[in-house]
């Protein structure tokens, strides 16, 4: 009779949505750590601001908050005048991750960097929440998809899209019309589109031959090599320095 009562209690507890065993808590936290670490490892390999430790911590912390939100207040379920919302605490994770992701976004005045890192942190927090809520298949599937996006689409972007982005060239040269014509001819030969040209005085005006700073915003073709272009410009007579951003 006693054995039947114990079995009945165990079954009732196992079907209780507010109950979770310590082993299952540990399993979910370890899984969140692993999934976040996988994405963080890819970010670390690419030398991004949010790497292995950051992503692993975000995923683990999100999982812990989800577990706390769902099961941390189970003892108050049967209390009168108490209504528990298992999503309320976890929902605040998204707001917190917004502040963390904003710290990885940089505006240099010419371009914005860190958007992908911020987005990956946001997805990693969602994966942690999914693990904490018990959606293990969804969390694992999302991790695989994120890794494919960060690795495969990155390769695809570099091959077919990155080359079409603008490069900023700065050229210090003597003020010669023939030199400007030579630079234009070189750009035309390499099928480089000049988007913007800025010309300003450079250095000491008392030099025998005045120098200028020529700034070019150019779109480079996919098949081109920017280092080769810089070397060819540097070899032109009258060019003293050339750099790119």
Q: Topology, please?
A:
Layout: H1 2-14, H2 22-45, H3 52-71, H4 88-102, E1 106-107, E2 112-113, H5 115-133, H6 136-160, E3 166-174, H7 177-189, E4 193-202, E5 211-219, H8 226-235, E6 239-244
Helix pairs in contact: 2-3, 2-5, 2-6, 3-4, 3-5, 4-5, 5-6
Short description:
One of its GO terms (cellular component) is plasma membrane. The protein has helices at 2-14, 22-45, 52-71, 88-102, 115-133, 136-160, 177-189, 226-235, and strands spanning 106-107, 112-113, 166-174, 193-202, 211-219, 239-244.
Tell me what the structure shows.
The protein is an alpha+beta fold. The chain folds into two domains: 2-160, no CATH class; 164-244, ACT domain (Alpha-Beta Plaits). It has eight helices and six strands, in the order ααααββααβαββαβ. It has helices spanning 2-14, 22-45, 52-71, 88-102, 115-133, 136-160, 177-189, 226-235; strands at residues 106-107, 112-113, 166-174, 193-202, 211-219, 239-244. The strands form two sheets. Strands 4-5-3-6 form a four-stranded antiparallel β-sheet, covered by helices on one side. It has a two-stranded antiparallel sheet with strand order 1-2. β1 (106-107) and β2 form a beta hairpin. α4 runs antiparallel to α5 (115-133). The longest helix has 25 residues, at 136-160. The radius of gyration is 29 Å and the shape is elongated. 23% of the residues are buried. Mean pLDDT is 78; it is low at 1-14.
């Amino acid at each position: 009779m006693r054995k039947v009562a114990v079995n009945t209690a165990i079954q009732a507890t196992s079907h209780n949505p507010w109950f979770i065993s310590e082993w299952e808590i540990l399993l979910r936290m370890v899984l969140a750590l692993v999934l976040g670490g996988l994405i963080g490892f890819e970010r670390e390999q690419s030398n991004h601001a949010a790497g292995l430790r950051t992503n692993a911590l975000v995923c683990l912390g999100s999982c812990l908050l989800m577990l706390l939100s769902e099961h941390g207040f189970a003892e108050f379920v049967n209390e009168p005048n108490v209504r528990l919302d298992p999503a309320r605490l976890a929902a605040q994770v998204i707001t917190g991750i917004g502040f963390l992701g904003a710290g990885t976004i940089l505006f240099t005045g010419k371009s914005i960097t860190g958007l992908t890192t911020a987005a990956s942190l946001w997805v990693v927090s969602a994966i942690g929440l999914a693990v904490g809520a018990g959606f293990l298949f969804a969390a694992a599937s999302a991790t695989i998809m994120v890794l494919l996006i960060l690795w495969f689409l990155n390769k695809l972007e570099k091959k077919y899209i990155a080359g079409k982005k603008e490069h900023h060239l700065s050229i210090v040269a003597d003020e010669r019309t023939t030199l400007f014509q030579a630079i234009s001819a070189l750009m035309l030969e390499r099928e480089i589109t000049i988007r913007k040209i800025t010309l300003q005085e450079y250095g000491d005006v008392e030099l025998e031959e005045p120098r200028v700073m020529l700034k070019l915003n150019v779109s480079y073709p996919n098949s081109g090599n920017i280092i080769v272009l810089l070397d060819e410009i540097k070899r032109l007579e009258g060019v003293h320095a050339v750099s790119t951003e």
